[in-house]
Design a protein that fits this description.
about 20% helix; eleven-stranded antiparallel sheet; 33 strands; alpha+beta; about 25% strand; seven-stranded mixed barrel
């Protein structure tokens, strides 16, 4: 092996509960200057949460968010489904294991499952409504879970009152007052920041009262259409995310048809790494920094420590076509805490009340003298124009009265006590901030530079043979054989290598928490200086079987490459696989059994290439040119939703080597095609997404569809918005097979698309 040794430890376990799987329903730009003189938009008073900006027309759904209307929601769901839903959870240990495995190279997995239910809202009854749990860590509960409702997931065009297809119901377990969320969004809106509407709802499940919930508007196309000239831009969500090489991978793309194009995100990352004024100018070409100042100052004003500026968490951002990023607030249930309240800041002791600048954009701006002055000016301006103590206290009283009337009796006392915290915050906040700014704004440390793993990123293909229990050998160099090795597409020799297999050791077990009997396969190569390099994967022992295929992301298979310096007892580098597949041709777990197979994968982080329409569906992966394209989609098919594949090549294609999913980011949702399915040269094949035969599929009006090779390489994808594929229409490539997707009124399943 040329200048490197590779060790493969293969870790697999049964995959369970981490995919957002749908259960079948019952039958039935100009650059921005860096000088302080640039004009900025004036804050707008939108203090009434049911009222939009005076320049905007009333929305038909406003009545569902009126503060004086407490929605009464009843959910009827199968008892077993409810028990499964409410117990689905993510522990801190799960989170750390995911971070360790993927090193922040992808958005966090969606662990919640959709279930079908009958939902009644203020007497309006709908059947076949999709319901799932929501929450990341702190807001999870198995007695009063936060919930998402989707009326149109199983029933095309179904909506509440003819105007709302989705509802978000927060349990407010981190806010006993139940006032924080609606009051925070009211302050954001008054400052001129696009913010969700918010009110309250009582919820019961199968006749059992769960109590009062906070009803929050979802950030989807209707929200964007109300706040921007176009809802057809690029929308992203940040969860433990930032514009740095380290955290950039967890940003989740929520819209934008070209899922392989992350050039706008990478432009922000590159601009922030340039510490010159030219970098600031480039940053302003992609981010609307004037609007960001208002968003940032408002986060600080309400004490949103768990937002973007304070914890790289709970935020969205949106870019209209040819526009710049505008930041949007989210997850504001843990706000209104004064400086002397506990604040779990990341590596910041005694944080000043007038600034939060943990993350890349606020830190870069605050540590530039002109932008620091502009931030302070904006904060003081919002204090004067938005922070009206009398109005805010009146709003608290109004919301607190709703809570006292509608919360369960056991929750009312703690709600009343905690509401005093909010009142105290409102009365003291202005003085606290102004005192902190006198005689001059406080300092905030610049972040430490991120150093990427020494191994960088790349691809690996390897074919190997091993013997079970060889990892106990006293002479590992003589064990196993590497018969083929390809690094970054180039064949390499496999001298001085070994392949070991057996029960996992203590360090390997840590790669796959929860596995009953983890097993390892390790391919080693030894250098003359005594150092080692390696690749590690780990599997449940029962998964080692002849003919087994394990896909990273779809199955619980994890691993990565590492290096071990001469004389060291622990690796100095480990980089996980972002994609990969293991295929076993022979396997056994009795002493002396032969294990043979092949592994191919991609490790590390690298900027994703910009791709044209129809490019691959995964960040960081170029589309595989195999002659297969998604050619047409019917999201409101009759009687079933369907998609069409087209073989553009001159060869027959077997679909045994492909997987498909109605999510571009959740690899756990990928499913295989029916065994033996082939496509003749030039063929068009329609696939109906029968929920019985295709578990996980429910193509709705605002969905996505992706196609991958079984090793995780992206092949093709399509992402459509509400209205792109209506009843009697399809979303199809025009010109056929090569053009961009567009709405057509004459669907052509099984044949070429017509304009």
């Amino acid at each position: 092996m040329a200048a490197a040794i590779w060790a493969i430890a293969i870790i697999t376990a049964s995959c369970g509960g981490d995919a957002d799987i749908a259960e079948p329903p019952p039958e039935t730009t100009s650059a921005i200057a860096t000088t302080p003189e640039e004009p900025r938009p004036e804050p707008t008073d939108t203090s009434d949460p049911a009222r939009q900006d005076d320049a905007e027309a009333a929305d038909p759904s406003d009545s569902f968010f009126a503060l004086d209307r407490v929605l009464e929601i009843g959910i009827e769901i199968a008892a077993d489904d409810w028990d499964t839903l409410r117990h689905q959870t993510r522990t801190f240990e799960d989170l750390m294991a995911e971070i360790e495995e993927y090193e922040l190279s992808r958005p966090f997995a969606n662990i919640y499952t959709w279930f079908s239910a009958t939902v009644t809202v203020d007497g309006e009854i709908h059947t076949g409504v999709a319901v799932r749990k929501k929450g990341f860590l702190g807001s999870q509960s198995d007695t009063k879970p936060s919930l998402k409702l989707r009326f149109d997931k199983y029933v095309d065009d179904q909506s509440l009152g003819g105007v709302m297809e989705r509802m978000t119901l927060n349990n407010s377990v981190q806010d006993p007052s139940m006032v924080n969320t609606c009051l925070s969004y009211r302050v954001f809106a008054a400052a001129g920041v696009p913010a969700p509407r918010c009110n309250f709802a009582t919820v019961s499940v199968n006749g059992r009262e769960l109590g009062l919930y906070v009803h929050v508007e979802e950030i989807k196309a209707p929200f964007l259409a109300r706040h921007f000239d176009s809802a057809g831009g690029a929308l992203y969500e940040g969860t433990v995310s930032d514009f740095t090489p380290e955290y950039r991978g967890t940003i989740e793309k929520k819209t934008n048809e070209d899922a392989a194009d992350w050039s706008d995100i990478d432009a922000v990352v590159a601009a922030l790494e340039d510490r010159s004024d030219a970098g600031l100018k480039a940053l302003g070409e992609t981010v609307d920094l004037e609007r960001f100042l208002t968003f940032w100052a408002t986060e600080v004003l309400i004490g949103h420590w768990d937002g973007y500026a304070g914890d790289r968490n709970n935020y969205w951002f949106y870019r209209e076509p040819d526009g710049r990023f505008v930041f949007l607030p989210w997850g504001v249930d843990d706000t209104f805490h004064l400086k002397d309240d506990p604040n779990p800041f990341d590596n910041i002791s005694d944080p000043p009340p007038s600034v939060l600048a943990l993350t890349s954009i606020p830190n870069r701006l605050y540590n530039h003298p002109d932008w620091r002055a502009r931030y302070v000016e904006r904060l003081e301006e919002i204090l004067e124009t938005v922070w009206d103590e009398d109005e805010l206290l009146a709003a608290v009283d109004e919301m607190a009265a709703v809570v006292q009337r509608h919360a369960l009796p056991a929750a009312r006392h703690s709600a009343a006590d905690d509401t005093e915290r909010v009142r105290k915050f409102i009365l003291k906040r202005k003085g606290e901030i102004l005192a902190d700014l006198t005689p001059e704004p406080p300092e905030w440390p610049e972040p430490e530079a991120y150093v990427p793993p020494a191994v960088g990123s790349g691809t690996l293909e390897i074919t190997f043979e091993a013997t079970w229990d060889s990892n106990r050998s006293s002479n590992p160099l003589g064990e196993g054989e590497v018969t083929r090795l390809v690094l970054d597409g180039s064949p390499e020799t496999a001298e001085n290598t070994a392949v070991l297999a057996g029960h996992s050791g203590p360090d390997e077990i840590g790669l796959l928490p929860g596995a009953d009997e983890p097993a390892s396969i390790v391919v080693l190569s030894f250098e003359d200086d005594g150092s080692l390099s390696g690749m590690t994967l780990v599997v449940e022992r029962d998964s080692l079987a002849p003919g087994a295929t394990l896909v990273i992301g779809a199955d619980a298979i994890a691993g990565g490459v590492w290096s071990l310096p001469a004389g060291a007892t622990a690796p100095d580098m480990f980089t996980p696989f972002a994609e990969g597949v293991l295929r076993l041709t022979a396997a056994g777990t009795s002493r002396g059994d032969t294990i043979t197979g092949a592994f191919s994968g991609r490790f590390g982080w690298e900027p994703a290439p910009t791709a044209g329409a129809g490019a691959g569906a995964g960040a960081g992966s170029a589309p595989a040119n195999v002659g297969l394209v998604i050619n047409e989609v019917a999201a409101k098919g009759d009687p079933l939703d369907w998609f069409e594949l087209h073989n553009t090549s001159h060869e027959e294609i077997s679909l045994d080597g492909f997987v498909v999913a109605d999510s571009l980011t959740d690899a756990g949702k990928r499913v295989v095609f029916p065994p033996g399915t082939t496509m003749a040269p030039g063929a068009y094949v329609q696939f109906a997404t029968d929920k019985e035969g295709w578990p996980g599929f429910a193509l709705g009006g605002d969905e996505e569809l992706g196609l991958w090779l079984s090793d995780g390489a992206a092949v093709d994808q399509v992402d459509w918005n509400e209205g792109d594929s209506g009843e009697g229409q399809s979303y199809a490539r025009v010109p056929d097979a090569t053009g961009d997707f567009q709405t057509v009124d004459n669907p052509t399943p099984g044949s070429a698309n017509q304009p």
